[in-house]
Design brief:
By secondary structure, this protein is of the alpha/beta class. 42% of the residues lie in helices and 20% in strands. The chain has helices at residues 10-20, 25-35, 46-59, 73-81, 95-107, 121-130, 149-159, 185-198, and strands spanning 63-67, 87-92, 114-118, 137-142, 160-169, 203-208, 214-219. A 7-stranded mixed beta sheet has the order 3-2-1-4-5-7-6, sandwiched between helices. The longest helix has 14 residues, at 46-59. Helix 2 runs antiparallel to helix 5 (95-107) and helix 3 packs parallel to helix 4 (73-81). Bound molecules: calcium ion (CA). Calcium ion (CA) binds next to loops.
């Protein structure tokens, strides 16, 4: 039993949430608001948000990056875990989705920590590198278009300090990565990304089977 990760069915997941989830009321409210949206499956699970909050506090993080903000749940989770002088550069291309989260950020009192940049993330990250921010970030979360992951990962790694952690979402693609019949562009992109970082000796890795699979890559 202890040689495998147990598979978490609905009943066990509900138990897990019952005994461990501590969700800020504005996070809960934003999750409920996002659930009405047709793209709601793009939102991170609350237990994953809580894991990222703990990572941020364990890292003593002040400077964070997010690639793919969607309606702002993960950005709110990160901002709530940051100290008063912390900041999150949140990259997204959609004003329509991100503006859903802004009132929740404001009500939670953390909007001032979130620097939302509406542009292709590679442009935003390149601009950060160009102004000398290399090696000055503690934590990054990548949760955006899957074919873009290698580009986002490389740039985030440049921006991380030694010991900084990049968390990469949707590693499992709903199980598709291990399904020999699955060959969508996103599944293929994720398999390629996973193969790429497996042998990337600039980081140490751990793949956490939470949500849709979250790889933690720590810069060495
Ligand atoms: Ca995701």
């Amino acid at each position: 039993m202890s040689t495998h990760s147990i598979s978490v069915d609905e009943r066990l997941r509900n138990y897990m949430l019952d005994v461990s989830l501590r969700e800020h009321p504005e996070l809960r409210a934003l999750r409920d608001e996002t659930a009405k949206h047709e793209m709601a499956r793009m939102q991170v699970s609350p237990e994953q948000g809580q894991l990222m909050q703990m990572l941020i506090r364990m890292l003593g993080a002040t400077n964070c990056i997010e690639v793919g903000t969607f309606t702002g749940y993960s950005a709110l989770a990160v901002a709530l875990a940051l100290p008063d002088d912390g900041k999150l550069v949140a990259c997204d291309i959609s004003e329509e989705y991100t503006k859903i989260g802004i009132p929740f950020w404001e009500r939670a009192g953390v909007a001032g920590k979130i620097d939302l940049r509406i542009a292709p993330a590679t442009e935003t990250l390149d601009a950060m590198i160009a102004v000398g921010e290399t090696g000055s970030y503690d934590f990054a979360f990548i949760d955006a278009d899957k074919p873009g992951y290698p580009d986002y990962f490389d740039r985030c790694l440049t921006l991380m300090r030694i010991g900084g952690v990049i968390a990469v979402d949707n590693i499992f693609m709903g199980g598709g990565v291990a399904d020999p019949d699955a060959d969508s562009d996103n599944v293929v992109a994720m398999r390629n990304f996973n193969a790429l970082i497996k042998d990337d000796n600039r980081v140490e890795l751990s793949l956490i089977p939470i949500g849709d699979g979250l790889t933690l890559a720590r810069k060495v």
